[in-house]
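Example for tutorial group B:
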């Protein structure tokens, strides 16, 4: 989550744009939810490969729904 988020922040800063994380887009939140889901799934009897697939599908679903239906976080003033 940190490397993905900070990579995007560095990219946006170098392009002189407002970093995506400071806008209303849901992507760091999706990564955090995925990380927590993976951590929770490691305590089950499911194989690690299945945990990874479930986590990837969860994060992708959150991002697709957020983009398709324009769901976002509240803007910071």
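The residue assignment follows.
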């Amino acid at each position: 989550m940190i490397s993905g988020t900070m990579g995007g922040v560095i990219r946006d800063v170098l392009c002189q744009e407002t970093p995506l994380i400071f806008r209303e887009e849901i992507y760091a939140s999706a990564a955090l939810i995925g990380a927590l889901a993976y951590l929770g799934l490691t305590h089950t009897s499911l194989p690690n490969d299945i945990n990874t697939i479930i986590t990837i599908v969860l994060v992708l679903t959150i991002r697709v729904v957020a983009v398709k239906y324009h769901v976002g976080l509240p803007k910071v003033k």
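The chain has a mean pLDDT of 88. Compare this with the pattern of hydrophobic and polar residues in the output above.
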